[in-house]
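Narrative of activities, Objective 1.

The group set out to show that a structural description can be obtained from nothing but a protein's sequence at a throughput compatible with the screening campaign. Below is one input-output pair from the validation batch, recorded exactly as produced.
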Amino acid sequence: MANSFNYQDKTYNVSDTLDVVYRIKEGEKERQQKFTGMLLQIRGKDEGTRMITVRKITRSGIGVERIIPLSSPFIASIALAKKGNYQKAKAYFVRGLSDQQLRRKIYRRKSV
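Output recorded for this entry:
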């Protein structure tokens, strides 16, 4: 499927909110930094070239996107923070939405 990927036996879909923990080396010290954001897109055909784009909104309201290669040795872990229910392959439309509009579109449950 084009709108999901597997990482360490777990499947993640576009519009899921992910916690990506990155290892950052500063001089001789190494620390870990968490980047929590919504999965916008998945690129690449095989495991060696697979990349994901994760977007978060900072406290000051500025959107930050990070492109993460899944074959990077600097990824400590990827965990699911919140499940989304978007069906398309890419979620670029969220770039123009506020936080409240985004929650209304992505994380609402459709009643039958």
